[in-house]
């Protein structure tokens, strides 16, 4: 069966891959990754990882693997939360505050409650925060950026009310269960990230709700006209983002062995940067899980890389910015160059 | 009337102070095709949306099979066997065809398998003779015509009791319309009913058993098959005596060349030679997706393009961009008036002036006051129905919006105007007003390049028609050869013999 429409323009500047295996290049999974803009961040991560290992081969030792993954996993989880909101065409400015709040709730409740209850409470708080945003955005029709900016102040204040200085009751056992090693060379935090990512992938790709989330961001009117409850979908997406964020908050509290009411603040911009680097569309409907995770890994490790390369760490933001612009920009430039090269040849 | 499948009684829909529908009553029998005709703004689309459950009527009742229809829920309507293919496409662009076909059904938390969805979609497309559409392709990569086919396929999927086609043929090509009619006949043979909303009188003559004419939100009249003429229907719709449908192209007074390109190459174009004279109306024909949209975009500089030689109004250029094109004397009416043509949140006057704003000039009301004479002249010349230049462009009906996109190029010393199907989905009266404006422009010596999906327009109003096939010129028709059959024949790639699989096309 042949397609009459021209194939989707390649997102990534990888003619080598196209030449080496057009079948691989056009297989369903790869086409989906291409459409979701994930090829460029994946390629960027591979390049980054190779450079990193060349500059600092010590990364592949047990200790460094463990610290690096503990550094990266909370960011990856928060970025996934941000991705879900971005997929429905919103943006979550309160994600850092939600993270701080879940973080302190988890840490303080551990002092006198059993661990599973503390986890449930933290997840519940994340869900409640997400649903609060979601109701205002989906049912009251307010713009996501205004709603989440306002709620960021609310959640941030509540977090300071719950715990006004770093502390809480995170124990060594919890640290080992979330941030230790499962077996040598396999940090537990990566395993948790993988579990959550796979569950989230199943939800987004293999349930109707997940596809509705993509659809709502792609074109809300169409989804409505098709008889789908677009508002409910949006609300659930915000709630789901809150839950995923709470996982990130707990991973952060456990790996640092403290609860901190300001811990989430730096994650707001990093999560947005990771989603941008992942090639997601901020108008909604486009973005991939694997791309987001790898983008978060890249951004999260830049500081480390510069440290080992002996560069002043202030440069890490400049490098992050350059990577984002390059990864987002190269495919655009490539398409233009390819057109004029092709036009001149024929 | 008790055995009618659908009975709509006294439907009223008001949006604030605006009465879109003021009391419409009609019924539809099983196995019948009921046409719903009327000008834009007559309330057809609103009625169709109420039947589909997309909007709830302010008052009035709808019953299907004797049961009242749950109003205001597309889902409930779907479940009770009423399905609608909308004019404004209701497909999600980033979903694949398979996802669009299968996702609206089922609970949110039900598992979703791409494989099963693709298999189900292939089976459905196969059964509807649409197997050339790849169920794995994202809808945004399909041509407008294919998207509309998918939309219709989705509506047909549940074997509906009542199928509503709201301008569903507006982007379809003649073979596509034939396909649609075949499907409609299959459905009615099984006892299903179809409500066919369209502007195309030729199609209504062919397919409709009965019809209801709407005007200004009221029923203006009814007709049955074979009992009406185009002129009667037009006067019923317009509420005034009908005029002749197509104007003739004006006599050409000069041989000057307004635009010429040789070997124009761009995405989707395989080298096009074209020459457009001043005052000439040159039609572009062909099936959708064979390079017409790309040709116009390339000529206006909206898509990157290169050519061996390229002159606009005698000036040689090597490439162009939209800003430069406007300066060179080009005008462009794009395909999608809502997305590319207008700023819907801005006023009518500002939309007319859009190409003529410079960053350092006055804007807003002072500028509108300055240009008042020109704006009023355009609004009057095209009879745009608006409350004035300060009304938001988004609140106008489709036909009037299209007039704005066109009107901004009038009286502005244009040399060439590029038109992308300006009459798609607008009513008969608005069409005639546009035809007249196009002919008037040509009389002033402006070269008109006009892509239309309506073959009749090309045949009657153009001096000459160039038909594109697979990104290249398949045939040029002029004089006696300029007939509807020739245009359609060339469009499907059959120059001379009618062979659909012909690959080597004379160019």
Walkthrough of the structure:
The complex is a heterodimer of chains A (346) and B (507). In chain A, 73% of the residues lie in helices and 1% in strands. By secondary structure, chain A is an all-alpha fold. In chain A, strands 1-2 form a two-stranded antiparallel ribbon. In chain A, a hairpin with a 2-residue loop joins strand 1 and strand 2. With 507 residues, chain B is of the alpha/beta class. At the A-B interface, helix 3, helix 11, helix 12, helix 13 and helix 16 of A face helix 2 and strand 14 of B. Chain A: It comes from Herbiconiux daphne. Chain A: It is found in: Cell membrane. Chain A: Keywords: Cell membrane, Membrane, Transmembrane, Transmembrane helix. Chain A: It is a multi-pass membrane protein.
CATH class of the largest domain in chain B: Alpha Beta
| Strand residue percentage of chain A | under 5%
Q: N- to C-terminal separation of chain A?
A: 28 Å
What is the third-level CATH name, the topology of chain A?
A: ABC transporter involved in vitamin B12 uptake, BtuC
Spatially, the strands of the biggest sheet of chain A line up as 1-2
Q: How many β strands of chain B by DSSP?
A: 21
Provide the domain count of chain B: 2
> What would you call the structural class of chain A?
mainly alpha
- Looking at the structure, the CATH topology of the largest domain in chain B is Rossmann fold
Main location (chain A): membrane
Keywords (chain A): Cell membrane, Membrane, Transmembrane, Transmembrane helix
Transmembrane segments (chain A): 38-55, 75-101, 113-132, 139-159, 182-204, 235-254, 266-282, 289-308, 314-334
InterPro entries (chain A): ABC_transp_permease
């Amino acid at each position: 069966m042949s397609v009459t429409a021209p194939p989707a323009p390649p997102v990534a500047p990888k003619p080598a891959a196209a030449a080496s295996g057009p079948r691989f290049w056009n297989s369903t999974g790869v086409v989906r990754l291409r459409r979701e803009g994930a090829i460029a961040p994946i390629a960027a991560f591979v390049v980054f990882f190779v450079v990193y290992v060349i500059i600092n081969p010590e990364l592949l030792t047990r200790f460094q693997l463990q610290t690096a993954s503990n550094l990266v996993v909370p960011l990856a989880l928060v970025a996934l939360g941000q991705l879900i909101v971005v997929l429905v065409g919103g943006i979550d400015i309160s994600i850092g505050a939600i993270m701080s709040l879940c973080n302190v709730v988890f840490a303080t409740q551990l002092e006198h409650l059993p661990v599973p209850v503390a986890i449930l409470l933290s997840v519940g708080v994340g869900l409640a925060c997400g649903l609060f945003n979601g109701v205002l955005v989906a049912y009251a029709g307010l713009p996501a950026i205004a709603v989440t900016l306002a709620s960021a102040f609310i959640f941030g204040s509540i977090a300071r009310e719950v715990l006004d200085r770093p502390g809480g009751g995170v124990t060594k056992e919890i640290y080992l269960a979330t941030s230790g090693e499962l077996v040598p060379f396999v940090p537990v935090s990566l395993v948790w990230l993988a579990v959550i990512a796979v569950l989230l992938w199943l939800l987004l790709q293999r349930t109707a709700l997940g596809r509705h989330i993509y659809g709502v961001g792609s074109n809300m009117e169409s989804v409505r006209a098709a008889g789908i409850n677009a508002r409910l979908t949006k609300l659930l997406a915000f709630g789901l983002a809150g839950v995923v964020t709470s996982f990130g908050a707990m991973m952060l509290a456990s790996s640092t062995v403290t609860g901190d009411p300001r811990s989430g603040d730096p994650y707001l911009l990093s999560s947005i940067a990771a989603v941008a680097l992942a090639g997601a569309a901020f108008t909604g409907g486009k973005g991939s899980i694997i791309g987001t995770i790898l983008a978060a890994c890249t951004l999260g490790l830049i500081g480390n890389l510069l440290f080992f390369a002996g560069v002043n760490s202030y440069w890490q933001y400049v490098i992050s910015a350059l990577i984002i612009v390059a990864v987002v920009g190269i495919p655009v430039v490539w398409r233009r160059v390819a057109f004029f090269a092709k036009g001149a040849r024929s | 009337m008790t055995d009618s499948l659908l009975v709509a009684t006294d439907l009223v829909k008001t949006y604030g102070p605006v009465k879109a529908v003021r009391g419409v009553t009609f019924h539809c029998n099983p196995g019948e095709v009921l046409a719903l005709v009327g000008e834009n703004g007559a309330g057809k689309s609103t009625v169709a949306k109420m039947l589909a459950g997309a909007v709830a009527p302010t008052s009035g009742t709808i019953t299907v099979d004797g049961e009242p229809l749950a109003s205001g829920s597309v889902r409930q309507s779907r479940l009770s066997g009423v399905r609608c293919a909308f004019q404004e496409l209701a497909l999600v662009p980033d979903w694949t065809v398979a996802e669009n076909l299968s996702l609206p059904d089922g609970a949110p938390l039900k598992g979703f398998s791409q494989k099963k969805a693709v298999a189900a979609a292939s089976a459905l497309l196969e059964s509807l003779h649409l197997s050339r559409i790849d169920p794995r392709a994202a809808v945004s990569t399909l041509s407008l015509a294919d998207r509309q086919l998918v939309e219709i396929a989705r509506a047909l999927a549940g074997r509906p009791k009542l199928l509503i086609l709201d301008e569903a043929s507006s982007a379809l090509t003649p073979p596509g319309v034939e396909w649609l009619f075949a499907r409609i006949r299959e459905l009615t043979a099984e006892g299903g009913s179809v409500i066919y909303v369209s502007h195309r009188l030729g199609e209504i003559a062919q397919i409709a058993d009965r019809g209801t004419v709407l005007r200004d939100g009221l029923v203006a009249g009814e007709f049955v098959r074979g009992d009406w003429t185009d002129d009667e229907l037009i006067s019923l719709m317009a509420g005034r005596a009908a005029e002749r449908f197509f104007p003739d192209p004006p006599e050409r007074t000069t041989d000057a060349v307004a635009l010429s390109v040789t070997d124009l190459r761009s995405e989707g174009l395989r080298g096009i030679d074209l020459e457009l004279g001043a005052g000439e109306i040159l039609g572009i024909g062909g099936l959708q997706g064979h390079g017409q949209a790309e040709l116009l975009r390339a000529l206006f500089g909206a898509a990157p393009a290169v050519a061996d030689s390229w002159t606009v109004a005698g000036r040689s250029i090597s490439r162009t961009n939209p800003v430069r094109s406007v300066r060179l004397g080009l005008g462009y009416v794009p395909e999608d008036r809502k997305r590319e043509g207008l700023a819907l949140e801005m006023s009518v006057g500002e939309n007319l002036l859009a190409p003529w704003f410079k960053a350092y000039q006055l804007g807003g009301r002072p500028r509108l006051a300055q240009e008042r004479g020109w704006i009023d002249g355009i609004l009057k010349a095209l009879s745009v129905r608006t409350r004035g230049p300060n009304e938001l462009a988004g609140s106008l009906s489709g036909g009037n919006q299209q007039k704005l996109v066109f009107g901004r190029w009038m009286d502005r010393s244009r040399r060439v105007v590029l038109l992308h199907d300006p009459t798609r989905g607008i009513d008969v009266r608005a069409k005639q007003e546009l035809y007249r404006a196009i002919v008037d422009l040509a009389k002033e010596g402006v070269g008109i390049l006009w892509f239309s999906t309506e073959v009749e327009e090309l045949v009657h109003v153009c001096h000459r028609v160039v038909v594109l096939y697979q990104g290249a010129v398949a045939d040029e028709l002029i004089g006696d050869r300029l007939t509807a059959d020739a245009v359609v024949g060339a469009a499907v790639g059959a120059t001379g013999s009618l062979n659909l699989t012909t690959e080597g096309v004379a160019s």
